[in-house]
Amino acid sequence: MSDVNIKITDREGVTHDVVAPTDMSMNLMEIIRSYELAEEGTIGVCGGMAMCASCQVYVINDPGLEPMGDEEDAMLGEAFHVKDNSRLGCQLHIADVMEGLEVEIAPYP
């Protein structure tokens, strides 16, 4: 079993140090939900299909994330509160390269 350490700042501005498993096929949205870092019903509304942007995060420290795919790019093109460092948590699959990742959860529309 392998874990990575991630810092997640919630929508209230509180930073949480979380441990995320790399061997369970989870994504960042699921980690945020499992740690209950966003109010129920305000994250992962579409179930992680890159169709709602409720799991949008701002990447503060990128240790080497995979490049953004076309679906993610298209969804962010229609989303609110988008910044240059925006990503969808549902599209960020937990992997060893995420050690030291720091994100802030974007406001919920």
Task: Walk me through what this model shows.
With 109 residues, this protein is an alpha+beta fold. It is built from two helices and five strands. Strands 2-1-5-3-4 form a five-stranded mixed β-sheet. A hairpin with a 5-residue loop joins strand 1 and strand 2. It is globular and about 35 Å long. One of its GO terms (biological process) is P450-containing electron transport chain. This is Ferredoxin. Keywords: 2Fe-2S, Iron, Iron-sulfur, Metal-binding.
List keywords for this structure.
iron-sulfur; 2 iron, 2 sulfur cluster binding; metal ion binding; single chain
Specify the number of helices: 2
Strand content: 15-25%
CATH class: Alpha Beta
Radius of gyration computed on alpha carbons = 12 Å
The number of strands is 5
Q: How would you write the strand order of the largest sheet?
A: 2-1-5-3-4
Distance between the termini: 36 Å
Second CATH tier, the architecture: Roll
Bulk shape: globular
Short summary:
With 109 residues, this protein is of the alpha+beta class. The protein has helices at residues 28-34, 70-78, and strands spanning 3-9, 15-21, 56-61, 86-88, 102-105.
Task: Write the topology of this structure.
Layout: E1 3-9, E2 15-21, H1 28-34, E3 56-61, H2 70-78, E4 86-88, E5 102-105
Parallel strand pairs: 1-5
Antiparallel strand pairs: 1-2, 3-4, 3-5
